[in-house]
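Office hours follow-up: a student asked to see two folded examples consecutively, so here they are.
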Amino acid sequence: MANNASKDLGTKSIGQLLIKQAVPASIGILVMSLNILVDTIFVGNWIGATAIAAINVVLPVSFFIAALGMSIGIGGSSIISRALGADNDAKALKTFGNQITLTLLLTVTMVFFGLWFIDDIIPAFGGKGAIFEPAKIYYKIVLYGVPFLALCMMGNTVIRAEGKPKFAMYAMMFPSVGNLILDYIFINFLDLGMEGAAWATTGSYLVCFVFILWFFISKNSELKIDISHFGLNLPIVSEIGSLGFVTLARQAVVSVTYLFMNNILFDLGGETSVTSYAIVGRMLMFALFPIYGITQGFLPIAGYNYGAYKYDRVRETVYTALKYAIGLATLVFVMLMIFPESITRLFTQDAEVIKETPPAMRWVFAATPIIAIQLIGAAYFQAVGKAVPALLLTLTRQGFFFIPLIFILPHFYGEMGVWISFPIADVLSTIVTAFFLYWEMTRTLKRDA
């Protein structure tokens, strides 16, 4: 197999590798997050505050379908990283072909049902009152592009598994820039409102898909598949599914969380509270980009070295990733505690939203310095192919702690009970993850010490 950049993952300095992998991943996530952030700012200022809430209703549905591609990508990429580390090129190629087939089959089916039940899905996710109509307009158009987004998410993780983080970064940058340009043309210049915002988003998915397709058919990729690789192989599909289910379950819980949050906040404070949550949600995507970047960069390094039985390098990767991620998370925490009102004013000039959002933002990010432990810990088990602990640790924050809390605490503290659920869930899930990660570091990964 030509162009074996993946071999560097098992030989070069862990610090250098993590920077090489994480910086492009962070930049890509930053640009993508900025795209979502600026897109929301454009929508809020050019269409209105209700439009922000409408997009927030649609996102969990479209992202869940797209997350099928991400889950197949991450599950398959774990196999690819370990296969490349073990010099099993045939398995790597077959896995990639199966990833493409699975992504197309599942996402097209989900889009069909998503459009068929549109009038039931939107209200269920909080698209009520004045939010319903703009959400329906946005939903219908964006869903047409979601299979392309799923293929992009799948392909992006495979590019990282090959040890090509810069190309993965470009795959995230081009559509983000394209979306902002299309936003200006469709919303501001052509005055198409919500339709314009939706077509700009769908167009950005197509831009990303074209770039990733070019990468894999060009000489840049070492995974050169043919028609024989697309036929589904049951053992590989099963392994992709068991590992990818971790990511899918996480996104499913995120989507369910949006469903509950939008409905609970609508009942407590109407459109204003849903809009505040939408703004805070955008900051959750944007502000944590360096931590997510380190997590993405960590995955192929840990997976490759685990597959090569280099457990000392796996331990070093974990410790280095934690050190970098905790430091960056602390900086994010300080910035958000100081400037929440200024950040809110970027999105809207609505007085009620500006009043409600800053205190909510401070509570939501109150435990940010320790969140890196939970993210890196869960990612480790996924990288090394341990699906069950990866799944359980991924679900601890939102599934086991956060969702129960948002049903219990509002009975005692009203809307404040919703916001304080965030740091409580962060602390509890970090304690659980730290315990399992420590056990793994001092037991399994000591075998070659």
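And the second, which I mentioned at the end of office hours:
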Amino acid sequence: MPLDFTAIDFETANSSNASACAVGLVRVRDGRIVEKTGWLIRPPAGHDVFFELNIRIHGIQPEHVAGAATWSDQLADIIAFAGADILVAHNAGFDMAVLKRACDATGDDCPPYRYACSLQVARRVYRLESYRLPFVAAEAGFADFPHHNATADAMACAHVMVDAARRVGADDIETLANAVGVRVSQISVADTHAESFAIA
């Protein structure tokens, strides 16, 4: 199988995993980035208050998302872009929890995506003082990007996974995961108590 996957990154309005306010998506085919996109999201009702801490992190203000599509309106666009790919994210538990919790908040069906974590992979492939995305991406040759811009973060994550696969001689995500001793997990749509993860 070729090294095909979709890298994904969410930004949130507050400490609720359901408060998605931006998404970035990057498609990788045969180890090459072939398409990228991203957009703002109006967070689900009840999860739409913007915390000052989050605003300082990503710079997204409430007025920026006032005219954006709601979670329910744009979920199909995420699914259409990702298709049947394995999703990859840096600290993937956080991003998968956003996907799951936003669907819980709106009553939408959450797609049971399989996913892998570039943070877990990086810890096993690189020797770094910090495994935060900017440091890991720089090691992978992708430096000086606007961290916490969702599309830029997804691009960085994609570069990390492609570089890690090259370093260990893996041709696909499954082989990479097996080679470095991490799991390819799956979103459990039956789980109503998913763990909350800190921002990467």
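Two things to take away from it. Residues 5-186 form a domain with the Nucleotidyltransferase; domain 5 fold (CATH 3.30.420.10). Residues 114 and 186 are 4 Å apart (CA to CA).
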